[in-house]
Amino acid sequence: MVLRVLGAAFPQVLRSIAWLLLPTSFIALIAWSTAGSATGNTGDPLRAALWIWIGSHQIPFDLNLGSSAVAGHLSYLPLGALVFPILAIRNGISRTVDRLDGDTSLIAPARVAFSFLYSTFALLASIFSKTDEVIPVWYFAFIYVFPFALITSATVARRTSLGQGFLFGSRIIALLLGISAIALGIALLINVEMVKNLTLVLQPGIFGGFLLLLLNILYLPNAIVSTLAYFSGVGFAVGSQTIVSPISFDLDKIPAMPILGALPKNESLISLLGVCVVVFAGALLVSWTVELKQKVLVQSFIVAVLISAFVGYSASGALITEAMSAVGTSPWKFTAAITLQLGLGALLAIYGPRMFKRT
User: Fold this and answer.
1) Looking at the predicted structure, is the pLDDT value of residue 42 above 90?
2) What parts of the sequence cross the membrane (predicted)?
């Protein structure tokens, strides 16, 4: 059984890796050839392609920058890039299951084997692609990539039942992120002139403009999480010692990144109305589960809190330099705010009607 599962999974793991690695190698090769370097060699674009592949799986990097070897860290990675590994893993798992000849008892072991082999490649890529300047944090291959691959694989073929708690909890966070995405889109439209100016400052050219557009698209989910953090009252940072929130604004300058054109100019107390939206979401969660057991509500709430913690952590981090060592929201503050506001909404929905009945 083990050999059969490995025989079905291993080729598809390689195929899934190549599905993403080959296009990134092509892009890295073009970028390397157009940039030019007096000291570079043909191995550089291949190593860069591996770094792109590693980064798309949210594996952070330790950096030693310049001749003075200034330490840096890159953990603020684009959440949107996870789309490509998800597609690759789903395709690989689907093909793996097809090669099991309908034996459903082997699907679960095949998922585990695929995820283990996939994360093992991430581990090896992290170890062997490192240089003195760029060092992938290798242990994230199992901390992040293995559970990510396992969860993704559970959505393919004979799907694993995740329960009503997961369903409702994930829906409520998805709803909040969807509303935040609309708010971000409106902010971008209102500040389209600033977005244009930030683009012109970079003068990226045709190919560079395409890469810049792609980078901004991939960072959109990070921006959406920051938008939710902003309207929850917590706010977010665009560098160390900075804060952008409805009640506090401390930001002198911003990187030339077009998506940052949506940033507010100062405090905006009216934006605290966003807290009401999160509170309402808590009440909505109760209405979704009111006809079910109370255990489902508790499970849904816990799932919502865990997902908010995950997205808060994943959408924040350091962006290479000391000046940009804090970008995005504070994971613990974001999680605490969402927890308290959802909890308040749930309590109001449960006990509010009872209080009115008594009066």
Assistant:
1) no
2) 12-32, 70-89, 110-129, 135-156, 168-190, 202-221, 228-249, 269-290, 297-320, 332-351
What type of residue is 96? T
In sequence order, what are the residues at sequence separation of 6 or more whose Cβ sits closer than 8 angstroms to the Cβ of residue 263? 191, 238, 244, 251, 254
This prediction's pTM = 0.90
Residue 210 φ then ψ, to 5°: -65, -45
In the three-class reduction of DSSP (H, G, I as helix; E, B as strand; rest coil), residue 236 is classed as strand
CA-based torsion, 270, 271, 275, 278: positive or negative: positive
Q: Scanning the structure block, which residue is given the tokens 């684009």?
A: 78
Q: Please give the order of strands across the beta sheet that includes 134-136.
A: 134-136, 61-65, 70-74, 319-320
- Within a 10 A sphere around the Cβ of 273, how many other Cβ atoms? 11
Q: Which two tokens stand for residue 15?
A: 């195929």
Greatest mean pLDDT among 2-6, 30-34, 178-182: 178-182
CA 27 to centroid of chain Cα atoms = 22
Average pLDDT score over residue span 326-345: 95
CA separation for the pair 211, 35 (Å, rounded): 13
